Amino acid sequence: MPGRVVDYLVDMIADLGITHIFGVDGANIEDVYDAIFDANGPVGVVAKHEFSAATMADGYARSTGGLGIVVATSGGGAMNLVAGLAESYTSRVPVLALIGQPPTSLEGRGAFQDSSGLAESIDAAALFATVSRYCARVDDPAELPGHLAAAVTAAKGGGPAVLLLPKDVQQQSMPIDPPAPPSRATRPRAADGHPTVAELAAELAAARRTGKIVLIAGDQVARDDARAELAELVAALDASIGLAPDAKDVYPNTGPGYCGVAGSMGHAELVEALRSASACLLVGTRLPVTARAGLDALLTELPVLSIGVLPPHPAARHLDGPDLAATITELLTRLGTAPARGEAAADLTPMPVPAADGPGLRYRTVVEAIQRELPSGADIFVDAGNTGAAVVHYLRVPEDGRFVVALGMGGMGYAFGAGIGSAFARRHAADGPHRTIVIAGDGSFYMHGMELHTAVEHDLPVTFVVFNNNAHAMCVTREQLYYRDRYSFNRFRSTHLGAGIAAMFPGLPARTVAEPGELAAALRAGVTATGPSFLEILCDPDEIPPFLPFLSTIDASRSTP
Questions:
Q1: Residue 194's CB: how many other CB atoms inside 10 A?
Q2: Taking a C-beta distance cutoff of 8 angstroms, is the pair 473, 385 a contact?
Q3: Are 283 and 217 in contact (CB under 8 A)?
């Protein structure tokens, strides 16, 4: 017997090789959890909030290179998904969201949590269409195979897909012989005038004869698992390479030719390399503002070439590359390979930041201490903000690990759910378990840090490092720099997160670090714990992070008479 719609869904998810389904249970999605219980397939994980469930699916997808699954009930549960899916949409992470809806017989007739768009209710299909590559309501079980196939294909193309599932449809039986899913659509041909692989190879060869080529690589390299091909391309071109802030794990951070991070959290070595370059090649990045701040003028003076699934924001000769590994391999056959260079990159020059004299530890001190204690292959998930800027700028990512920073939407609290989702994915990795390090500020912790409970429940190897300055520090910095430091809405009373977490979760290793001398031992204990651990780092809300827009504003104010 084919079983119910929900049984079919869970079986299809299992057939895709997906091991975990993340969500928050509720009346209009509970049948999916019922099917998970009966199936010999994916594990059902209940998060504490739908935003975090969405980020868990996002983190799972980023660490597996596959598809993440999130489920949520109707009403507020569905609405809570939007911010998480928006991050996946902007960062092109493949996530499939299965969202329960009230029974069809009640839609438009006063149903609780109605979002059918009828009778002036919210239209969930219209809402989720804005944060997905594919969105459809399934009103008939016979429609499900086609919608599911189209949703999976769209998500794997880069971004979320959403299926809205009324409760009565979930409970119905699947047809014995459902119609075959539609064939996969072919990708449209690149517009005329875009270079072919042969033309791009010829342009790169010509640029190499006249000078040094600089590559800037982005997170599509990680999504397409094209790290090895990227390293071969750097060697073949004898190129220098910089990385977008959200792509620090796609090339060894001490590897040959490495010039650091591009953009607002970037390094002077990359700027200098571009000043003397004969061409710039973008690989798997659209080069958004965070990755090109301070580089616009240099890029307008250079031939800029690009490979990727989408053309970059700056003007460039762009080669459509939906599969970077395949495209770079084809490019290498025309360029010819070269022996890998053995020399390591020199130490990078940190941005000169103003000295801080407030309480607590300094960003650079903490990040460099984290660097020294990171276990091999550690996966690092970082929230945006002052803390994120410091980690992006100062931290060298260990090889064989992942590095993810939420710059798509910059949603506070993203790293907690995403790190947990990644830990589920990497728990039984073929190359052994990976320790996950979540690094965030106290503001992010207050939003979604209680997902720590999920890590405790599942005994996941996650170390949570929370920089506590009792403030939304990036907002404090902006108040000081852009609003004449006349007030602050973003400083808060002191809290004791380490002690609070220790009291909430007896047996969980939880510590507070207030002095530099305590840092190494606390970090070592945190990353060597068998399960989750928690570390609170006290720091200064007035410290300026290594963030180019802030430092440029300070320099401008100093030069103004």
A1: 15
A2: yes
A3: yes
